[in-house]
Automatic annotation (TrEMBL):
<dbReference type="Pfam" id="PF00072">
    <property type="entry name" value="Response_reg"/>
</dbReference>
<dbReference type="Pfam" id="PF22029">
    <property type="entry name" value="PhyR_sigma2"/>
</dbReference>
<keyword id="KW-0804">Transcription</keyword>
<dbReference type="InterPro" id="IPR011006">
    <property type="entry name" value="CheY-like_superfamily"/>
</dbReference>
<dbReference type="InterPro" id="IPR014605">
    <property type="entry name" value="Sig_resp-reg_PhyR"/>
</dbReference>
<keyword id="KW-0240">DNA-directed RNA polymerase</keyword>
<dbReference type="InterPro" id="IPR053866">
    <property type="entry name" value="PhyR_sigma2"/>
</dbReference>
<feature type="domain" description="Response regulatory">
    <location>
        <begin position="142"/>
        <end position="255"/>
    </location>
</feature>
<dbReference type="InterPro" id="IPR050595">
    <property type="entry name" value="Bact_response_regulator"/>
</dbReference>
<feature type="modified residue" description="4-aspartylphosphate">
    <location>
        <position position="192"/>
    </location>
</feature>
<keyword id="KW-0597">Phosphoprotein</keyword>
<dbReference type="GO" id="GO:0000160">
    <property type="term" value="P:phosphorelay signal transduction system"/>
</dbReference>
<dbReference type="Pfam" id="PF22233">
    <property type="entry name" value="PhyR_sigma-like"/>
</dbReference>
<dbReference type="GO" id="GO:0000428">
    <property type="term" value="C:DNA-directed RNA polymerase complex"/>
</dbReference>
<dbReference type="InterPro" id="IPR053867">
    <property type="entry name" value="PhyR_sigma4"/>
</dbReference>
<dbReference type="InterPro" id="IPR001789">
    <property type="entry name" value="Sig_transdc_resp-reg_receiver"/>
</dbReference>
<protein>
    <submittedName>
        <fullName>CheY-like chemotaxis protein/DNA-directed RNA polymerase specialized sigma24 family protein</fullName>
    </submittedName>
</protein>
């Protein structure tokens, strides 16, 4: 099997990680493209002594720079919230953000995460704890949940409230979601893809975003369909079935990049 064939199944999830890390589909996908170009240009430098997925993420980390998003790697039109987020990176150290996302969202072990960020395993655990402490200090938000499965909706609501956020409502259809958003503007939306009346959570979010800007986290059992890099796609994506830590990390990242307050 060629290296390309070995890496192909892991690309959607690298896009998910890159988008969450940078706060933007455009930025994240640009770094993934740069990673693939680096592998094509120097295949002999690709780590062959580890699992292909580990080697792929390790190559990505060799290219990604949290303090300097290179202009030639990024699509034109950097939006103001993204510029603000870049200025706020000092709120939580780059390594702690990487460690949290790699373990909670991508499911890497502390040992694998240590390899990816070139740290000791004990340091990874300390970095994750540092990130979680920072999350506890994060600004609270009003959250709209769009989910038609009652048990899943209740689980998400519990996680959201445990994090200190308020839930403005739980919608099970597109129309209900839009109505709830209009009734009380949320600071964050968590949306399932397929809703009760065969309407789409994506369409519901499009309707909401047409009226005002709000960060969105999509929830789906088929993440690969929304991580192709070929069209406008979600920046933040949670895979069903999900872990509490995954939802927590995704909410933290979405709100981090959405904040309009730049610390002095």
């Amino acid at each position: 099997m060629s290296l390309g064939q070995q890496l192909a199944p892991h690309l959607p999830f690298l896009r998910r990680y890159a988008r969450a890390l940078t706060g933007s589909q455009g930025h994240g996908d640009a770094y993934v493209r740069a990673t693939l170009e680096a592998i094509v240009d120097a295949p002999d430098q690709f780590p062959r002594d580890v699992d292909p997925r580990l080697g792929l993420y390790r190559t990505f980390h060799a290219i990604w720079s949290p303090a300097n998003m290179e202009p030639d790697l990024i699509d034109e039109g950097v939006h103001q919230p993204e510029a603000i987020a870049q200025a706020r990176l000092s709120r939580i150290t780059p390594l702690s953000r990487q460690a949290l996302l790699l373990t909670a969202m991508e499911g890497f072990t502390p040992e694998d995460t240590a390899y990816l960020i070139e740290a000791e395993t004990a340091e990874v655990e300390a970095l994750v704890n540092e990130a979680l402490v920072e999350i506890e200090r994060q600004t609270r938000a009003d959250v709209l949940i769009i989910e038609d499965e009652p048990i899943i909706a209740m689980d998400i609501e519990t996680i959201v409230r445990d994090l200190g956020h308020e839930v403005t409502g739980v919608a099970v259809t597109r129309d209900e979601a839009v109505a709830l958003a209009r009734a009380k503007r949320p600071g964050l939306v968590l949306a399932d893809i397929q809703l009760a009346d065969d309407s789409s959570g994506i369409d519901a979010v499009k309707d909401i975003l047409a009226e005002f800007s709000v960060p969105v986290i999509f929830i789906t059992a088929f993440p690969e369909r929304l991580l192709t890099g070929e069209r406008p796609e979600p920046t933040f994506l949670i895979t069903k079935p999900f872990q509490r830590s995954t939802v927590k990390a995704a909410i933290a990242q979405a709100l981090f990049f959405d904040s309009a307050t730049v610390p002095a």
